[in-house]
Amino acid sequence: MLSLLNISYRHIILCLFLFSFFESCKKIDDIGSEALDPKTGVVVEYSDTTHIQVKTQFLDSIKTSSVNVHLFGNMYDPVMGHIDCATYLQFSLASTNLSLESDVVFDSLRLFMRVPLVYGSVLGKPELTQTLQIHEITEDTFSSTKSYYSHQSLLYNPAVEYSGNLAFKFPKPYQGDTTWGVLLDSTLGKRLLFGAGTSYTDNASFQNFFKGLVLKTQKVSGTDMGAIFQFYPFDQDSRLVLNYHKQGESTSKTLVFYIDSQSAHYHSVKRSEYELKPYGLLKDTTGNSVNFLVCGAYHKLFVKLSGLSTIREQGINYAELVIPVHPDYYIPSDSTVLAPSTVYPFQADSTQTETGVALTTSYYFDNTSQSYRVPITGYFQSIVRDSTRNTGLVLLPFENATSLRRAVVTGPGHPSRPIKLRLLTTRPPK
After folding, report:
1. For the chain, which terminal residue's Cβ has fewer other Cβ atoms within 10 angstroms, N or C?
2. CA–CA separation, 291 vs 293, rounded Å?
């Protein structure tokens, strides 16, 4: 319902709250006062829920072979269900035309991974024990010249696991980024040391001989939380290191294999309970519609404003969309599940697809109000004046390919926390 509140100019500073956005903090009353002459008009505040159309756009896959952060792990989210992430990696030679000495002895093979352990980089409960699983990729067509998407899987050998099903955990409090060195089975190390032969001539030959590794964790049982981790493949500390020495000598030597621009890489995201979660959760327990902003699966929010003729002749001083998180599906304070940190509003075309036209900047999730507050003043003014077609907006979560953050947001019909359009307008004098 459209509600009105008449307030005089001199009370604006006392009445209006602070609004924070991307680069600066500015009071709404400051914005309104710049456009308002107190001798000629009155400020009117609108809170509109009846003229907003909202729906979730579900996409089943996004491209993950072009990002520099990958995901691995397994967790249970009470809203999204079981989620499994696997990272697929190909390795490159540090230099070509390598020639190994004869009479060498294998020492060890380790995979080093740069794993960020800071707020927001880990979802779930990494302090609980999980089981690492590392397998060798057998897919012949894995190539850095191809694009890979989150729904895709590559063939690998499930019968041979190279980490020894390593049990691991990362207790809180987090200590920042860590370089995790995982000792791999000697079978692979000896094959890389003794079986490569002419495969060290160039990258193409080496990658044909050794197609890469897949990193994942064992599926958690029942509703155990588990965790999803980020991994920086291009960090200088992320690499595969083979140690060996010459027979009769004690000095250790190394072969280093990196993940670089000539290495194929991507991560998959699998959700096993889509039909119930979230597709089965399109209404809350009281029958009100709910919507989603989800990274990883890339669930977007389409919003369209209608019925604007009632304010067509009034000056628009400020406009914002207020998009609250649903109180029944809140974001836990222990950071096991987080809302997308940022959303980007884009103009939509006639098919309700985002165009390349973004509205100024991005907007952060407000933990205090548990909502997104998206200023759309310029956009709103332009559609009221008919200078922009009213085809709606698409809100995209920022970490779409590098995170599994999610938010369940309300619709305009929620009784206490509806998604709404908030306006400050100048009513012309009669």
Report:
1. C
2. 7
If you write DSSP's letter for every residue of 57-71 in order, what string do you get? E--S--B-TT-S-EE
- Residue 260 CA to residue 246 CA, distance in Å, equals 29
CB atoms under 10 Å from CB of 184, counted, come to: 23
Beta-bridge mates of residue 111: 182, 240
Helix (H) or strand (E) holding 30, with range, is: helix 28-35
Which comes out higher in pLDDT, residue 375 or 182?
182
pLDDT digits (tens, 9 = 90+) for 149-179: 999 999 999 999 999 999 998 877 666 788 9
Dig out the tokens for 422 from the structure. Answer: 């908030």
Strands 25-27 and 42-48: unpaired
Task: Assess whether pLDDT exceeds 60 at residue 26.
Answer: no
To the nearest whole number, what is the mean pLDDT of the chain? 80
The lowest-confidence range among 4-8, 354-358, 368-372 is 4-8
Side-chain-side CA neighbours of 85 within 13 Å: the count stands at 29
Where are any strands of DSSP class E within 164-285? 167-168, 178-183, 213-217, 226-231, 239-246, 252-258, 265-271
> How many residues are recorded in the chain?
430
Give, as one character, the DSSP assignment of residue 14. H
The torsion of the CA quartet 300, 62, 331, 124, rounded to 10 degrees, works out to: 170
3 state SS of 403: coil
CA 276 to chain centre: 22
d(CA 154, CA 164): 21
Confidence tier at 261 by pLDDT (50, 70, 90):
very high
pTM: 0.81
The structure tokens listed for 249 are 């000598």
